Structure of Deoxynucleoside triphosphate triphosphohydrolase SAMHD1-like:
Amino acid sequence: LLVKIIDTPQFQRLRNIKQLGGAYFVYPGASHNRFEHSLGVAYLAGELVEALSRKQPELKIDDRDILCVKIAGLCHDLGHGPFSHLFDGKFIPKARPDIKWKHEEASVKMFDYLMEDDEVEEEMSEYHLTDQDVTFIKEMIDPKGQTKETDTPDVSHLKLWPYKGRGQEKSFLYEIVSNSTNGIDVDKFDYFARDSHHLGIQNNFDHRRFLEFARVCKVDGQKHICSRDKEEWNLIDMFNTRTGLHRRAYQHTVTKIIENMINDAFLKADPFIQIEGSGGKMFKLSTAIDDMEAYTKLTAMKRLIHKQGCFKVYSLSDRKPVQRSESRSNVVVLPGSSQDPSSSVLNVL
């Protein structure tokens, strides 16, 4: 089933989305993409849930639970746009200040769109996954967003269980992929190790020790994934690694300058780039998030330019269609000035 999901266009688009956005222009080694990160999270999610099942059979973790956790790990980043966090952290807030949108929301919508694939749907039925299991997967991908969409009134003061996919007796499963309780989850385990490797920065956190010593304990009436007291310093190293990565790479001065430049190019080009979505409707960079067929095509644009009818780009001056250079097939040439911001964004992408 995981292979069927990986083979879909919705997942394959992650091959063309840089994990670290603008940091690639500062650290040439940071060329890794969301694709391999998603594979790693699925693997680590499986390792953790299977370890808990093996060491604590009283938790009654069944095969469907394990499969759902792996799928959630695999699909948790489906909703990322070009240059990852630059798109939802900088571009969308500037281009569409009237909405609050995060990539987790798009990940859930993209997962729904992926589920329309006949082969995936058929494979899921073979594993006897139900609508409740699908809800469970989406709740693990976006825990906060999915609880907001329920019809349940605000009962947070009553501490009622907010999820529908699994009951409160399996609350710990919601802490594996995206842990909204304390932030310790396999998503971070993978990108700490992967980003540190590609950036050439030391990672002192040993996620294998966490997987080995993790146990489910009841705390204040609810089951949580916990660590041994002797693992305190390993967890401190995890948070120190996170701080170091932000200070030395994610928030690097030149990285932020480059990302601001790319974002400015996005904003200038937004009205003139049109992407075909469902029913032949055309969408801009900023509105493609409203249609998953269009959003699936929104990755590395110079790859899309070679596909006839995928989208059209217009000059800022006379709105004539772009002509592709015959001598340099990976560069788009716009009519008019070479300083045209639409040209800049296409060359960047």
